[in-house]
Design goal:
The protein is an alpha+beta fold. The chain contains 18 helices and 17 strands.
Length: 566
């Protein structure tokens, strides 16, 4: 559940901190007071995109922070663990929108991506926006709603993996067929390039090694003279460093018998002479091995020139040359086995069409089973919301296709990422009327109640911790409003509910009632929210009933709606 929400410098909101409770949390307020701003800010915590336009004028950034109770939410804990985020019983989600255009996301003070915020938000909250019920009027959304009721997620995941493999194979086949003309046109060029590269066949890093070797060979005379001179200075002349150090050591040894102080110096000189001897040996060996063959220099220069020519033609590096080599080898192999490769991929596609079709058929059968159950539950729920003679039907159809298809029970059926089914809701809200597509039948108020019914059934099965409804009561009033309120109250027995409403019949059922108000502060418009006491709630409900002029009758009616004794 959402324990608290803090918003700073967001649109008309300067700073608010509101604590929500269990059960039904109702938010009311006059039109334009900022209720929708509050919902938009909540949406940021669920991973919705943000714009710098939401930042309050003059502020450097907007901040929205929510503290959620995890309350045994194993799915969220698993995601947090996978992303090395520490979690106790509380989860703190924060979004910061900077006026400079940056967007920072944090979970428990750990910087995270927007995608991770969204992934976790989907497991914490279901936000039903003010106009979301209109999605019911788009048949393409019905299959997702239907699948929300089902328990075949594993089958859908398995189907989707096969679907991706099939699409990949179809795409590969198209690419290869598209290459046929190009392959034949470039076959001679690739054959020439293959011979050209294989004639040199450079190794990774060989150009650097050759450059370093040539640097030595081309300067061998200077290296020979210098190492010979150094050898003489160190060892091979009358005043060599070796002899001079040895003489110093012997001089000190002659007086060491009188003072032990010199023993340490003698030891250091002994080590120095040994080091000089090592350097001398290394210089002598280097000098001795400098036997340069001019033909070797020419051969290495020619080799480096050949490699550099390939680098210039094929990408600028030995690595790029070798990559080009592998590419043309593959293209030439494909050109030589074009028909076989086409046949191989086509065979793979046929197998995948069958496997994918079998899995899609299984999902389709499960959808048909679930759709009957859903229809029955929705009719019951709609009846409780005042649509007494409703008929509801989920129609699942398939379309044959000669192009993109799966094999299902001997037929070639059109398919997509959700399978082979096209799903559409049909409804009748009047006795004796045949069911028709939802878009052609339901009024605005009926659409709201149908969506509330769907949300109610889905939420009870999914166990989402928090449901947010922004004016789900659109288009309803009077007796029906009371039933919608009862439905929300019932739903609040399973989940925390936050609902924005303008109807007293719903507001009167609140476990916690908040009011959003708009006022002036330092000559600027500011929106705020506060929790109402019982007496304040009675007055707010009465105001929803009778307007600004609260009467004794409206106060009495408010108490009745709230179940309080007069």
């Amino acid at each position: 559940m959402l324990k608290s929400l803090q918003i700073k410098d967001y649109a008309l909101i300067e700073s608010i901190n509101v604590e929500f409770g269990h059960g039904l949390n109702i938010i009311t307020g006059e039109t334009g007071a900022g209720k929708s701003i509050l919902i938009d800010a909540m949406g940021l915590l669920l991973g919705e995109r943000a714009s710098v336009e939401v930042i309050r004028k003059g502020a450097p950034k907007s901040i929205v922070e929510g503290i959620f109770s995890l309350d045994g939410n194993k799915k969220v804990r698993k995601i947090l663990s996978e992303n090395d985020i520490d979690a106790d019983d509380e989860l703190i989600v924060r979004r910061e929108i900077s006026s400079k255009g940056s967007n920072r996301c944090f979970i428990n003070d750990t910087p995270v991506t927007l995608n991770l915020i969204k992934e976790i938000g989907d497991l914490l909250v279901d936000l039903h926006g003010q106009h979301e019920h209109q999605s019911l009027l788009r048949p393409e959304t019905h299959i997702e709603m239907l699948d929300g009721f089902g328990s075949y997620t594993k089958e859908k995941d398995e189907y989707y993996e096969l679907f991706k493999q099939l699409n990949s194979a179809v795409r590969e086949l198209g690419e290869i067929k598209g290459k046929e003309k190009t392959l034949h046109e470039r076959k001679d060029l690739y054959s020439f390039q293959l011979k050209e590269i294989e004639a040199v066949m450079p190794e990774e890093g060989e150009d650097e090694k050759l450059s370093n070797t040539l640097k030595v060979l081309e300067n061998s005379e200077k290296l020979f003279e210098t190492t010979g001179s150094v050898y003489n200075l160190l060892y091979d002349n009358e005043l060599s460093i070796h002899d001079q150090l040895t003489k110093v050591k012997n001089e000190l040894a002659s007086v060491a018998q009188y003072d032990e102080y010199f023993n340490g110096l003698i030891e250091e000189l002994t080590q120095a002479i040994a080091l000089i001897d090592d350097v001398t040996a290394s210089v002598r060996d280097y000098n001795t091995k400098l036997d340069v063959d001019p033909s070797e220099i020419d051969a290495k220069r020619l080799r480096l020139s050949s490699i550099n020519m390939l680098k210039k033609k094929f990408g600028g590096s030995v690595s790029a040359v070798l990559q080009h080599l592998e590419m043309i080898r593959g293209e030439l192999l494909l050109a030589g086995n074009y028909d076989l490769e086409i046949a191989r991929i086509e065979g793979e596609i046929e197998v995948l069409r069958k496997k994918c079709g079998d899995k899609a058929a299984l999902i389709s059968e499960k959808r048909k089973t679930v759709s009957k159950k859903i229809a029955g539950e929705l009719i019951k729920t709609l009846s409780s919301l005042g649509i007494d003679n409703a008929a509801f039907e989920v129609r699942i159809t398939n379309t044959e296709s000669a192009a993109d298809y799966l094999y299902v029970h001997g037929k070639k059926l059109k398919y997509g990422s959700d399978g082979i089914d096209e799903v559409e809701f049909y409804v009748s809200t009047n006795a004796g009327e045949d069911v028709k597509p939802l878009i052609k039948v339901a009024s605005g108020g009926e659409i709201s109640r149908i969506m509330l019914s769907i949300k109610s059934i889905l939420a009870k099965s999914d166990k989402l911790p928090l449901l947010i409804f922004d004016e789900i009561d659109t288009g309803v009033s009077g007796r029906i409003a009371q039933k919608v309120g009862n439905a929300l109250k019932d739903l609040a027995g399973y989940h925390q509910i936050i609902a924005i409403t303008h109807l007293p019949q719903i507001a009167g059922l609140a476990d916690h009632h908040f009011v959003v108000e708009k006022g002036k502060q330092d000559e600027r418009v500011v929106s705020s929210i506060r929790k109402l006491s019982t007496d304040e709630q009675i007055k707010e409900v009465a105001k929803l009933m009778s307007g600004e002029n609260i009467t004794d009758a409206s106060l009495k009616g408010a108490r009745e709606l709230m179940g309080l004794k007069n």
